[in-house]
Design goal:
There is one protein chain. The chain folds into 3 domains: about 5-50, no CATH class; about 110-295, Rossmann fold; about 345-495, P-loop containing nucleotide triphosphate hydrolases (Rossmann fold). The protein has a 6-stranded parallel β-sheet with strand order 5-4-6-7-3-8. The radius of gyration is 25 Å and the shape is globular. The protein has helices at about 15-20, 45-50, 65-75, 110-115, 135-145, 160-170, 185-195, 205-220, 245-250, 305-310, 350-365, 380-395, 450-460, 480-495; strands at about 5-10, 30-35, 120-125, 150-155, 180, 230-235, 260-265, 290-295, 295-300, 335, 345, 375-380, 400, 415-420, 430-435, 465-475. The chain is an alpha/beta fold. Keywords: ATP-binding, Helicase, Hydrolase, Nucleotide-binding. It comes from Xanthomonas bromi. One of its GO terms (biological process) is recombinational repair. Pfam families: AAA_19 (PF13245), UvrD_C (PF13361).
Length: about 500
């Protein structure tokens, strides 16, 4: 493979290089100076300077996989190591040799350029599920934390994702300068930190959370809670944030750095009820014009899984254009990775569904898989509790998200993760099981907004799977029929 080396002097002109006689230290042919890489420089002349840095050439051309393998070695921070998201940004331990995987995965050039070149100011990334948004957030967070005095705040909606993000930050040793919180947890901490009484008890949890946010809004307005607390604020899964939440958060950024990063995918909005209010970014204080990037490629899912999920949720994923100050719906595109066809299995009842899951997980573990590779995503807590009890009865290691502090879901020994679909937002697993599909939206009209939200939630659950997706049911419903049609449509498309 041909290789060469050179130096780019971004602050020295060629005349200054010659005048200082720097050619005695490094050959002039191995240098590109400031005035030799401006937009006015002839393209062919610039290319010749690059080729002059190669002392020898060979009649071969590198393939894309070979180029990615080289980038994997040169830039460890760009490596993608699924499904262990926690290690995306971890520094290699010096006493352990680096194992080189057969399949090299690194950020693509668009992701790398975005992560490296993102300056201060407000930035918005619209990205489909699995496009590497969280990976870019982690890279950006670590870079800012290393060079700023004030702390960095990372926010998301659900506790499970907050726990996973916290692991990513801890892996890079900047946890003392970065606070990772789910939004309502951060609100509670703000009230406590500034001696403000929490809201009175409310009839239900939703009303209490609304009262909590109202308290924080009022306290920020009256300056009981100070603004500009953080060098940077980063919001993952920003599509789950209400407009008034974003208004609070934007005020927490120090005007001197003015660094805010918002990650967004309107197709994954699953927490709102009764329809979502449309809003512009400018209306909530986010200066997005000229600083918006769209990521369309899905790297997480195989072509088979993504094609099935897209076919199932077609009407949800129809691309909707929007200007930079508004929220588009982006149609995902596959990076082309191939894998197993998703399965839709009909059982006689929920107990048999549990038995099938336990059997498949047991066989995979016996063949060398880790229990951490598996997640069972359920529509509600009652079903999650039932599935967890059946898997434990089968003597499988299980962690039920509802039984522990969700921030610690990924601590401890390898275990099958059982959680609700809502709690799975932002996460990924090698193999995903979705039981009880026939119980989703049973009493809803097929064309209702509520059924549309259920379909969106199921789409989110399906796209958590990296390599294997198994869906189970024990009776026919509108949704199971749609999933069966989606699998058939995927087979037909890939066979063409």
């Amino acid at each position: 493979m041909p290789w060469g080396f050179g130096v780019v002097f971004s602050n020295i002109s060629r005349a200054q290089f010659d005048e200082a006689e720097l050619g005695n230290v490094i050959a002039g042919s191995s240098v590109i100076c400031r005035d030799e890489m401006t937009e006015s420089v002839d393209t062919e002349a610039f290319q010749k300077r690059l080729w002059d840095m190669f002392p020898a050439t060979f009649s071969c051309q590198l393939s894309l996989p070979q180029i990615e393998r080289i980038r994997w070695h040169l830039f460890p921070q760009l490596r993608i190591v699924p499904p262990e998201q926690v290690q995306l940004f971890a520094s290699p331990q010096p006493d352990k040799p680096i194992a080189i995987p057969d399949l090299i995965k690194v950020m693509d050039l668009q992701q790398e350029q975005l992560a490296r070149s993102m300056g201060d100011g407000h930035r918005v990334i619209h990205g489909v599920a699995g496009s590497g948004k969280t990976m870019i957030l982690g890279y950006r967070c670590v870079e800012i934390a290393k060079r700023q005095g004030k702390p960095v705040l990372v926010l998301c909606y659900n506790k499970t994702l907050a726990g996973r993000l916290e692991h990513i930050i801890h892996a890079h040793g900047v946890q003392d300068r970065v606070s990772v919180r789910h939004f309502h947890g951060w609100c509670s901490e703000q009230l406590k930190a500034y001696g403000i009484k929490p809201p009175l008890a409310q009839p239900n949890a939703q009303q209490y959370l609304e009262a909590l946010v109202s308290k924080v809004v009022a306290a920020v307005k009256s300056q009981q809670i100070p603004r500009a607390q953080y060098a940077a604020v980063m919001i993952d899964e920003g599509h789950d944030f209400a407009p008034e939440w974003l208004q609070i958060v934007t005020q927490m950024v120090d005007p001197e750095t003015n660094s805010l990063l918002l990650l967004y995918d309107d197709a994954q909005t699953i927490y709102s009820t009764g329809g979502r209010r449309k809003f512009s970014f400018a209306s909530v204080g986010i200066q997005a014009k000229g600083r918006t990037t769209i990521l369309r490629l899905n790297y997480r899912n195989t072509l088979e899984i993504l094609s099935t999920a897209k076919a199932f949720a077609q009407e949800l994923l129809t691309g909707e254009e929007a200007d930079e100050d508004n929220v588009p719906v982006i149609t995902p595109e596959s990076a082309g990775r191939r894998g197993a066809v998703p399965e839709l299995i009909q059982a006689s009842n929920i107990w048999e569904e549990s038995r099938i899951i336990a059997q498949q997980v047991r066989e995979a573990i016996n063949n060398g898989a880790s229990a951490n590779d598996f997640a069972v995503l359920c529509r509600n807590k009652a079903l999650a509790t039932h599935i967890a009890s059946r898997l434990r009865a089968a003597e499988l290691p299980v962690v039920l998200a509802e039984e522990i502090n969700k921030r610690h879901l990924f601590d401890g020994e390898p275990a099958v993760k059982v959680m609700t679909m809502h709690s799975s937002k932002g996460l990924e697993f090698e193999s995903v099981f979705i039981p009880g599909i026939c119980e989703i939206g049973q009493r809803l009209q097929a064309d209702s907004e509520e059924m549309r939200q259920e379909a969106k939630l199921l789409y989110v659950a399906m796209t958590r799977a990296l390599g294997s997706l198994t869906m189970l049911h024990h009776s026919e419903t509108v949704l199971t029929e749609r999933i069966g049609q989606a699998v058939d449509q995927m087979r037909t498309m890939l066979a063409a």
